[in-house]
């Protein structure tokens, strides 16, 4: 007979009985215990049946699971687990619905995978694996153009903090004097990147119109500047660098270079001149039209300048009666086209200004 045997008698007339076994969970690890139930199946004590009941230590399940992982690009990751202790067999349930002990997952974003394990005694243990999907990226603003003296803010988006080469702030404001390339970097555990942006600079087209002046009645005057290859707009609507006018008024020229513009103003007054100027003369010693000069009443503070076709001054006088005799350095000047400018005061109390300018022809 086995030790610690106990007897259970089925009452006469009964063909079944209930035997309740209540193991005590005392927390002591004792190893697997076994109950052997021997049932006499014949009154002659010649037939027996034996049932073995095992009682396991009810201790918590222990899990060993995949380590947390950092990925810098999409990849397939093997998730594995090992369960010990508890009471096998084990049931596995992952948070993504998988019910196997191990699995392979395709990772394209950060995610936490939870694993629940239960044993034959319905003990439950949980653990998790954290998969961090990271990357390094850098997106820089498009190249831009500013007007000289203006500021622009440099911007970039990145996976982590950024640093502009030679600058102190993540989004610095800069005002380059000329076309400049700015470099920016970022880095993290997945690597580093460098990119750049080019900032172009348009220059202000500075210029100056002539001083305010006056023109005689029926005379024309040319105002403006040399063509600089930019865009031009007068307040009168013309899109050219120079105007020939014969009306008094205020004239404003705006010159535009890309994003930059500059304007200047000239005021043209009307002068009532009491003289007239020929358009040619013939210094050929025939005592007719020998000198070039205006005729009539001289304006106050009179001055006349004559230039050749290349803009070189060839004659100057402040005497209304003294004209040009057609000579340069006492030598006969070549025949052809010349230009004159007459200065003076349009009124007694006005300032000295350009009163008239035009072309003249020297004929021999």
Question: Can you tell me about this structure?
Answer:
This protein has 364 residues and is mainly beta. The protein contains no helices and 33 strands. It has strands at residues 33-40, 48-55, 61-65, 69-71, 75-79, 81-85, 91-94, 103-107, 111-118, 124-133, 138-140, 144-147, 152-153, 156-158, 162-164, 173-174, 180-188, 191-202, 213-216, 221-224, 231-234, 242-245, 249-257, 260-271, 275-276, 280-281, 295-296, 300-307, 313-317, 327-328, 331-332, 336-345, 352-362. A 5-stranded mixed beta sheet has the order 26-33-32-28-29, with no helix packed on it. Strands 4-10-9-7 form a 4-stranded mixed beta sheet, with no helix packed on it. Strands 12-18-17-15 form a 4-stranded mixed beta sheet, with no helix packed on it. The model has no long low-confidence stretch (mean pLDDT 90).
Write down the overall geometry. rod-shaped
Q: How many E-type strands?
A: 33
Rg measurement, Å: 54 Å
Termini gap: 160 Å
Largest sheet composition: 5 strands, mixed
Strand order of the largest sheet: 26-33-32-28-29
Helix/strand-derived category reads: mainly beta
User: Low-confidence runs (pLDDT<50, min 5 residues)?
Assistant: none
- Counting H and I runs of at least 4 residues, what is the number of helices? 0
């Amino acid at each position: 007979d086995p030790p610690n045997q106990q007897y259970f008698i089925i009452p006469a007339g009964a063909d079944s009985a209930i035997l309740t076994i209540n193991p005590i969970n005392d927390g002591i690890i004792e190893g697997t215990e076994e109950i052997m139930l021997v049932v006499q199946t014949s009154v002659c004590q010649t037939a027996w049946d034996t049932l073995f009941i095992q009682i396991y230590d009810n201790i918590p399940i222990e899990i060993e699971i995949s380590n947390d992982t950092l990925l810098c690009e999409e990849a397939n990751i093997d998730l594995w687990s090992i369960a010990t202790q508890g009471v096998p067999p084990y049931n596995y349930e992952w948070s993504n619905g998988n019910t196997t002990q191990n699995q392979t997952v395709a990772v394209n974003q950060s995610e936490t995978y939870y694993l629940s394990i239960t044993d034959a005694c319905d003990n439950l243990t949980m653990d998790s694996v954290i998969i961090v999907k990271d990357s390094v990226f850098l997106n820089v603003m498009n190249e831009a153009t500013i007007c000289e003296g203006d500021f622009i803010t440099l911007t970039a988006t990145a996976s982590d903090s950024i640093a502009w080469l030679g600058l102190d702030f993540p989004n610095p404001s800069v005002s380059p004097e000329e076309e400049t390339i700015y470099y920016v970097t970022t880095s993290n555990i997945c690597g580093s990147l460098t990119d750049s942006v080019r900032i172009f600079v348009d220059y202000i087209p500075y210029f100056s119109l002539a001083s305010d002046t006056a023109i005689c009645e029926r005379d024309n005057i040319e105002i403006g500047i040399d063509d600089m290859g930019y865009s031009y707009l007068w307040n009168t609507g013309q899109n050219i660098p120079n105007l020939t006018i014969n009306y008094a008024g205020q004239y404003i020229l705006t010159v535009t270079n890309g994003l930059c513009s500059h304007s200047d103003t000239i005021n043209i007054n009307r002068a009532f001149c009491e003289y007239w100027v020929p358009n040619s003369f013939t210094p050929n010693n025939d005592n007719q039209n020998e000198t070039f000069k205006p005729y009539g009443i001289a304006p106050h503070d009179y001055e006349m300048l004559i230039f050749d076709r290349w803009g070189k001054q060839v004659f100057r006088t402040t005497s209304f009666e003294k004209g040009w005799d057609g000579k340069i350095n006492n030598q006969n000047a070549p025949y052809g086209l010349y230009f004159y400018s007459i200065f003076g005061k349009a009124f007694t109390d006005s300032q000295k200004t350009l009163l008239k300018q035009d072309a003249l022809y020297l004929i021999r």
